[in-house]
Each structure stands twice: as structure tokens, then as C-alpha cells.
Amino acid sequence: MRLFYLLSLIAIVTFFQNCSEEKEKAKEAVTNKARPAIKLAVVLSDRPSFTVTLPGELKPYEEVNIYPKVKGFIKKLYVDRGSYVRKGQLLAQLEAPEIGAQYAAKTSTTSSTYQKFLFSKQSYQRLKEAAKKNGAVATIELERAYAQYLGDSAAYHSSRSEAAASGQIQRYLRITAPFNGVITGRFVSEGALVGENGMSGQPLFQLTQESKLRLLVAIPEKQAQSLAAGTKATFTLIDYPGKTFTATLSRNSGALDPQTKSLLAEFDIDNANSLLRSGQYAKVTVQLQRPQSTLWAPVSSVVQSQAGVFVVKNENNQAKRIPVTIGITKDTLIEVFGNLSPGDQILLKGSEEIKEGTKIGQK
Fold first, then answer.
1. Does 30 fall in a domain?
2. Is the domain of 102 the same as that of 191?
């Protein structure tokens, strides 16, 4: 009887133990079924060309405010706003009687000193010839004539220099164009006193060169290193819907602007037909390419969280977070900089929920 109870007890314990094991196996099977294998992607190395669309502005190739160099009254204006002018063309004539008087005085002084210089020169030459005969001219007389000749020569050349300088000032009364262009501003009228704070230092004219323009584009820091000699760009203008213009990079600022953190690029535009105007805003598409190959990952692989920006790398079938800095985006890929190598496996869809060391099943 006792043996019967013992056997029954063993049978009951075995039954419940088997039931418990079956439940654990079933639970594990359900868990595995609920946790599908994680899709992986591969880090790529590439040097793709890409485009970036940015705002731009057309500026004159040359632009200058024209000021008078001397003080005087506006005697005559020969151009007005909108006038096309050639280099050296007379724009305005100033009048300053005192400058004319000074020039006349300097010219008169030069004439008189020149006559004295000629007389002393001829006297010295005559004495020099006569001195060749023994006893004809005393040595002291010859030396005195030579000293007079040198003094008159210095006086003449000095007065001539002063007259030339005065003549240059006289020429400053003529205001001429420094280059070909169009007068975009006229700020004075005839009879106005200008120069040396006359009209509060206001310029007479503003002159711009419109036959050639500069297209200015600020390239963001992320794309700046891809800007190179020969970079091409296309641009459109609101004034010419459906029309596309082309340009080639001419120069760049060489340093990032400290305020905007961008690199200023300049594209020279031929505008001989005057189709374009400075001041117009443009929509510019710049064709760029990285100077060397960089690493790329799917956009979905990059996790941007409060903890930082990272991708999840498959390292020996375990999750490892790799901090990265992101660059430009091209289609479904994004440029990444970090402790990665081409061919590294990373999660196709990164997630904060996947912790460091989590086992990764491949699919």
C-alpha cells in the first residue's frame, strides 16, 4: 500500500514537471516568433556627384562711387542717371578760380626761372670755353658761374615740378569715368559746392559695370569642401520663367563667413546683351563632388536622439552604437563620419530601443 502511494506521488510530480517544461518551451517559441530577425545594411564608400540648390544674387562686376578730389563748384553735368559712358568720358566739370590762379602763377614762375636758367647756362659755357686759354678767365669767376648755373637749374626744375603738380590739380576739375558702365546714381546738381566735405562728402555719381556681372552664392559649410575650380552651375530668374542660364565658378572667398558659416562663391556672367540686371535674385543649382571618397549609410540607419547621433553596428552578432557626424544626403543615403569602415554591417533601421550588446539575428 505504501509503495502504491509512493509511485502515485512520483507520477504526479513528473506530470507537473513535464507540464512546466512544455510551457517554457512554448513561451520561448512565442518569444522567438515575436522577435523577427533584424535587417542589416552595409556601409559604402563612394565619391558621388550631387547638386545643391541655393539662392543667389547678381551684382555688378565693378561698382564705384565717384567723388571729386578737389573742392569746387559744379559748372556743368554731362550725364545723368541711366547714361551709358565709356572709360575716360567727361562726366562733370568743376570750377575753382583759386586753383586756376595758382596754376597760372606756377606757370609764370616756371617761365621766369627757365629764362634765368638758360642765361646762367650760356654764361657758364662761354666762360668754360674761354678758360681753356691760359689766363683768359680767373678760376674763381668760372666757379662762381658754375654755382649760379647749378642754382638756377635747381630753381627751374623745382618750379617746373610745382607747375606740373598744379596742372594735375587743375585736371582734377574734370570728372571722368574710370571704366565703361552705366550711371546708376546722380547725387548733385549744377552750382553745388562739392569736395572737402562740400555736400557732406556725398559722391557725385555711382557708376556700375553691367556688361559683366557677378553671381554670388553662399555655399553652406557642409558642401563648401566640394567646391572646386571649374564647378558648373545653372540658374533661373523670376523675370525669365522657363529660361535657364549657365555659369562656371570664377573664384571664392577662401574662408567661411564667421556669421553665416558659408563660403561665398562668385560666377562671372557675360551680359554684353544687357539681358540681365544687377540686383536680381536667382535660384542657383550648383553641381558638386566630394574631393575624396567618404562613407555612406542608409538614412534610416542613422538615429538622432538626445543621447547623440549614432548608427547601430553588428559586431560579432551584438549591437554596438557608433557615434557619427552626418554630412550631405543623396537619395536614400546619407554621408556619415565616425569609427566605421567600408563593408561594416549596420542596422537598416536604427532604433534607440536596441541597447548596447543586444544579440542581433541576421535576415
1. no
2. no
Is residue 214 packed enough to be buried (19+ CB in 10 Å), middle (13-18) or exposed (0-12)?
buried
Count: domains in the chain: 4
Asked whether 286 and 235 are in contact (CB, 8 A), the reply is no
Distances (CA, A) of 268 to 52, 129, 178, 211: 19, 69, 20, 11
Is 119:156 a contact under the CB 8 Å cutoff?
A: no
The region that residue 44 occupies, defined by phi over 0 for left and psi between -120 and 50 for alpha, beta otherwise, is beta
Rounded distance between C-alpha atoms, residue 129 and residue 121, angstroms: 12
Q: Is residue 230 part of a domain?
A: yes
Query: 1 in a domain, yes or no?
Result: no
Task: Give the residue carrying C-alpha cell 538622432.
Answer: 304
Q: How many residues are present in the chain?
A: 363
Question: Each residue of 63-83: pLDDT tens digit?
Answer: 999 999 888 899 999 999 999
pLDDT at 285: 97
φ, ψ for residue 35, nearest 5 deg:
-110, 90
In sign, the C-alpha dihedral spanning 71, 77, 82, 88 is negative
Tens-digit pLDDT profile for residues 32-41:
444 456 889 9
Question: Which residues form the domain of 330?
Answer: 40-47+293-347
Same domain? For 89 and 192 the reply is: yes
Residue 25 grid cell: 518551451
Q: Tell me: the pLDDT tens digits for 265-315? A: 999 999 999 999 999 999 999 999 988 999 999 999 999 988 899 999 998
> What is the distance between the alpha carbons of residues 113 and 359, in angstroms, rounded to a whole number?
105
